[in-house]
Structures are given as C-alpha cells and as structure tokens.
Write a structure and sequence with these properties.
The structure holds two protein chains of two kinds. By secondary structure, chain A is of the alpha/beta class. Chain A contains 14 helices and 16 strands. In chain B, strand 2 and strand 3 form a beta hairpin. Classes of the chains: A alpha/beta, B alpha/beta. At the A-B interface, strand 9 and helix 9 of A face strand 7 of B.
C-alpha cells in the first residue's frame, strides 16, 4: 500500500488501471476530461495495456463500450452531465445486453442554464436504466467503489453495468490523501472477467434480441430487476473480502451518529461531508442529529435504510437534484421504504439543496432540522419540498439580475 | 362483438378493420379499431382488431376472445407463431379466404365459412388487396351493418388513403359482391371463460439473459407461405440467360449445371420480379394453392 495525494479523477483512473481494464472508449467533457487524459497518457507510455480510443460522441462511446463488454473485454469509460444524456438511450441497451462495464459519471448539473458544478440530476436520470449506481463521498471511496463496481457488476448473479458517481470539481479536481491499493491485492479482489456468451467471430451470438411478444419483454425486464436486487448481497460479500485485503470496508449505506439520533439527515455523494460536519456542530448545540449516507443507490438498499431510520422522530432528506414539479428524486424512495413500519418516523421532510454546486451551509442544515422538529411537534406534514437558499445568495442574485437586465 | 382479422402486410388488413369500424360508426354503434403490425414488413403477419358495442367500450389492445376471426391469408392457419384460432370458443365464427374447405383441427364447434375473396378481388380490382373485401364480409357477418353503411365506409376509408375515384369504385363493387357472398351469423351466448393462473417469475441467472445462441434459424422460417402468385418456369421458352437469377431480390432462383433456373418454392415470396424481367416471357404465373 502506498499513500498518495490524488484528485478524484486520478483516483478513478488508478482504479481502472489496477482493474487491468482492456478497453477505454472516451470523449472529453468538463469536468471529466482529466480522467481520460491520464488514462490516454498511461496507455501511450505503455504503463497500461488497454486500448484507448477517442470516439466522436458519447452516443458512440457508450455503444463501443457496451459492445466491447459483450465480447468479454473489461471496459472502463467516463462522462458527465450533457454527455451522459447525449448517449442516454445506449444506457438502456447496454443494461439490456447485460454487459457489465463500469462508467464513471463526474456529476455536473444539467443545462439550461448551463453550469459546470455538480448536482445529481445527471446521474439520477440514469436511475431506471438498469445500471447499478455507486455514489462516492471522498477520493478514497471514488477509487475503491470503481473496484467494487467491477466486482459486483461482473458477478454472474448480477451481470449488469455500473455507474460510479463522483461530484465534479468537489471530488474530481479535489486532492486528498489516498491509500493506493497494491496490484496483487486488487488482482485477488477482482478476478479476471468471465463473460457469459461473449460475442466471438467464430461463434456468433445475438445480444438484446428483439422480442415482439410482450410477455418476453416483461420477463427480461423482471430478470434485470432481480439481478440488480442480487447485487445487494454480492456487494456485502465483496465488502468482506475487501476488508480482509485492505483493512477498510463499505456498506450500501453509511451511518454517522445515527444510533441515538432523533433526527437523521439523508444525503449522498461529496456534499455528505458538509452534512457530517453540520451534524457534529448541531450536536454541540443540543440537537440529537445524525446522518445516513446512501452509497449504493441502485439497487436501492431498502433494508439498510429501514434498519437505520425506523423509530426516529424526523428524517430530513436532502436531495441535490430536482424533479421539477415534484421535488427531490430520493425522498419519495426513502418515504416508500419506511411507510409500512409501525415505528416509522413522524416527519419525512423533503429538502432541495446544493443544485448546480451551490454550497450547503451550517445555517441551512440547522434550518432544515428545525423545520422538521417543528413539524413533528405540531404533528404536521411538510408543505412541499423545502428549497434552501440564503439571504446573501438572494442579494447576489438580485444584483446579477439587475446587471443582466441592463439596469 | 369482437373481430380479429389475420392477414399479411400489403393485403389491406388494417384498412379492412377500419372499414368495419367506420361502417359500425355510421350505424351509430360504439366502435373501436386497431391494428398491430410488428416490424411493418410486407408479407409479415398483420392482425387487426375491431370491437363493436351498443355501450361505451372499455377494452383496448389485443383481442384474446374473438367472436369473429377473419383470415385473409390461409397459410397463417398453419403458422404456429400467429395463433389465428386463439381464444375461439363454441359458437364463434371463423371466416377463411379460401375457395375450398380447409380441415382445421378445432375441438370446439365454431361456425366455419370459406369463400375465395382473392378471386373476387382479382376480378374487380385486379390485385390481391383485400381491404374492401374482408371489411365488407365482416360487416355482413356482424348482422348489424347495412350494405349502405358498408359501401359508404369503403368509399371514405379508401379516399382517406388517397385512392383514385375509379379504383374506389372498383373496390365498392368488390365490397358489394363480398357483402352478398356470405350470410349474417347471429351470435348467442359465447362463453369465454379464461382461467389464467398468476405465477411469480423465477430468477434464471445467466439463462434469463436475452441472448440468442441458436443462430442461423432464419432458414427454418419458410417465406414461401407468403405467396399468392407462383412463378413457373417454362423450360421450352427459357434460354438460360440468367436474368431471373440476377434479379430475384430474395436469392430464391438458382442455376443448374446447364444454367437453367430453378425456383426455391419454400422461400419464394411470389413478388414476380423474375416474371416481369424475363425477356422471353418464359415465366408464367399462377394462383397459389401450395399453402395446403
């Protein structure tokens, strides 16, 4: 094991290298570019044995990635935001082919208006595609979850592609101390990819065949769903092996001061670090608060969520995304997981925060927690999602709108 | 009343359903017509569905319990993937476009009618396009649609498709003849008792992946059953020039050692490009009866 200062981009590139990937089709987009620059450089220098191909678009790149995985190659690629959406239809095809490649999405809010900083409307658009989804909080997790993604995706009980999400800038360009795993340990954790029915020149196979009979379509979709649900246990198995090799491990969710908490904040990805810091501060102020981080978003870890949140007074779900006209994408999923419990939380407060990389300050966490506690004491429910915004931000917006209008 | 039409792409089956639907609409009935045509290929199986009622219709989509089944392409009766007879119960009506009776293994007592409407279509329209013919037969079988509504519907539906007035007139004559060639069949108390057991789908792991490993099975699909007209090579006139071999779009013409052509009747779809291109007019065409 070697300690290094690495950016999120470097960390996931290292993970692809350590995973001994065979093929990297790529197309650059900010803030993903650093990942493919690093990989193309390593391939050029012969430090990686992979084939690197720059494609003409994300649609082509996903097509190349999926078909290569169907031949039995271990495939890595990365994109972001508009790029993910541009290749979107292929996500469903790749998942339908049951081709287990790994795609790193460097989260960036979706235009318009255009921006470069992250939220999760890009990666969550792929929520229903059949891809497994791993969401990373820090640079170490980014590296490790790529290894987990290959291990789980390629398992014959699963055979589905995976997305590992890292937040643009806040992880991709952020350097942190990282334990770089030793190659031999990674080799042990991640055996060679053993494809099912790979396409060979001499042995043709039709993948993702047309099914013009409706029950066949239903059947194959159900199979994908059950395969994805299997990934929960495969993940847990992998976590045990990972711990033996690397003395650290991961669960589908992560609890932070949850055990004795009355109110639990639910978050995912890199902004969960700020959430943890806020939890510590709010504890000092006398609020019994905790944080539950969702690490595995697909398959959805319902049982882990129930275990952490049953019997709590309030749950504050901070969605760093917005389904316009409804609210957050994650909150209804949390609510559904808890609904049938006798001891379900009194309040589940939907909160929208951090869109387009907008920071979430302690004051905003405190505000959301207080709203939830007040609703609980009033035995009332929320009136739509809470849209967090600060006074200084409102003043800034006002002055910019004035400038934009020529006033 | 539920009507299911079976035919092949290009025969006008969708329009046949629409003619029935519109005619019923003219009669003041609640009507719903719908067709499903898969990958929209000429010659491929097409199914059209029509529902008629004197009350609003709450069903949609496929008809699994037809009162009437009308088969325009009799070869479909022998295609196990099409299931022309699915859901037919005692007392239901089966109309088949055929000049003679076809023995059909059908344990239930269905009312079977055989008429050669292709012959009538060739007589009046000059083509094997059966929209007006099958539509008119269905109108008459229903017992609730007048000849006038049938004719009005044929005129309106074919005009909507952009047919010239003289062609519409020919189709109206065809429709009238077809309306008269069958008797109405009253339906009483069809008892369709579905017994569908609901099961849970099991996870099949690697076997539940949509991969096709048995490649090359297209050869088992004999497209010769699509044929209405058959090319027949007259060896006395043929000069072994090979033009038919070159033009056949389906590679169904092969050449023997002397260079004379032979047609693969298992797969020839009867497009007759060979007969049109033959410079010596050595390829004759005949009505197909080879489906049986």
């Amino acid at each position: 094991m070697v300690l290094k200062m690495l950016t999120g981009s470097q960390a996931v590139a290292w993970a692809a290298r350590l995973a001994r990937v065979d093929y990297i089709p790529a197309y650059p987009i900010t803030p993903q570019t650093e990942i493919i620059e690093i990989l193309s450089e390593w391939v050029r220098k012969g430090e990686m044995e992979a084939i690197f191909v720059q494609m003409e678009s994300e649609h082509s790149l996903f097509t190349a990635a999926g078909t290569a995985a169907a031949t039995g190659a271990r495939v890595f690629t990365a994109t972001s935001s508009q790029g993910l959406l541009y290749g979107f239809e292929m996500l469903y095809s790749i998942a339908g082919w049951r081709a287990p490649l790994v795609l790193v999405n460097v989260a960036r809010a979706v235009a318009a208006p255009i921006t470069l900083e992250p939220d999760h409307n890009d990666v969550l658009a792929a929520r229903d595609s059949g891809f497994l989804q791993f969401h990373a909080e820090n640079v170490q997790e980014a590296l490790d979850l790529v290894l987990f993604a290959y291990r789980v995706a390629e398992d014959h009980r699963v055979l589905l592609p995976a997305i590992v999400n890292i937040d643009g800038f806040h992880l991709s360009f952020t350097r942190e101390r990282v334990e770089l795993p030793e190659q031999s340990f990674v080799d042990e954790f991640l055996p060679e990819y053993n494809p099912v029915n790979p396409i060979r020149a001499s042995e043709p196979v039709a993948k993702g065949i047309p099914v013009l009979i409706p029950p066949l379509y239903s059947f194959f979709k159900y199979q994908m769903h059950m395969a994805s649900r299997n990934a929960l246990n495969v993940f847990r198995e992998a976590a045990k092996d990972f711990e033996k090799l690397f003395s650290r491990t991961y669960a589908p969710v992560e609890e932070y001061m949850v055990e004795d908490a009355d109110t639990v904040i639910v978050m995912s990805n890199s902004f969960a670090s700020a959430g943890k810091q806020a939890v510590s501060a709010l504890r000092e102020e006398g609020h019994k608060v905790g944080l539950l981080k969702i690490r595995l978003f697909r398959p959805f870890p319902t049982d882990d969520i129930i275990k952490s949140l049953r019997g709590k007074k309030c749950v504050v779900v901070i969605d760093q995304n917005i389904s316009v006209g409804k609210g957050g994408i994650m909150c209804p999923e949390i609510a559904e997981a808890l609904y049938h419990l006798e001891d379900r939380p009194r309040v589940i407060l939907p909160v929208i925060a951090g869109l387009g990389g907008k920071s979430i300050s302690l004051e905003e966490f405190r505000y959301a927690v207080r709203v939830a506690e007040r609703l609980a004491s009033l035995k009332a429910g929320p009136d739509g999602p809470l849209l967090l915004f600060r006074e200084d931000e409102a003043i800034l917006v006002e002055s910019l709108l004035k400038t934009a209008s020529g006033g | 009343m539920r009507f299911r039409f079976h035919g092949r792409g290009g025969q006008g089956i969708k329009t046949a359903g629409r003619i029935l639907g519109k005619a019923a609409f003219f009669e003041g009935l609640f009507a719903q017509d719908f067709a499903i045509y898969g990958a929209e290929r000429r010659g491929a199986p097409i199914t059209a569905f029509v529902r008629l009622s004197d009350a609003p219709i709450l069903e949609r989509g496929h008809i699994f319990n037809p009162s009437y089944v009308l088969v325009a392409a009799p070869s479909l009766l022998f295609d196990p993937t099409v299931k022309t007879l699915e859901g037919m119960v005692e007392g239901a009506v089966l109309f088949v476009n055929s000049s003679r009776e076809i023995p059909i293994l059908q344990p239930k007592k269905v009312h079977m009618i055989f008429r050669d409407v292709t012959g009538l279509a060739l007589k009046y329209v000059g083509k094997d396009i059966l929209s007006a013919a099958m539509g008119a037969v269905a109108c008459k079988l229903s017992g609730t649609i007048s000849l006038q509504s049938t004719v009005d519907s044929v005129g309106e539906e074919l005009a909507d498709l952009g047919l010239e007035p003289d062609m519409i007139e020919k189709n109206i004559q065809l429709a009238k003849e077809c309306y008269l060639c069958v008797e109405s069949v009253g339906l009483s108390g069809l008892s369709y008792k579905p017994s569908h057991k609901v099961v849970e789908v099991q996870y099949l792991g690697e076997k539940g992946i949509p991969d096709l490993l048995s490649v090359g099975n297209t050869a088992f699909r004999k497209t010769g059953s699509w044929r209405v007209f058959t090319p027949i090579i007259d060896r006395n006139l043929c000069t072994a020039c090979g033009i038919c071999y070159v033009y056949c779009p389906e590679s169904c013409v092969s050449l023997d050692e002397q260079g004379y052509p032979a047609v693969d009747y298992d797969n020839c779809k009867g497009c007759l490009v060979c007969a049109i291109e033959c410079p010596r007019k050595a390829i004759k065409t005949g009505r197909e009866s080879a489906w049986s």
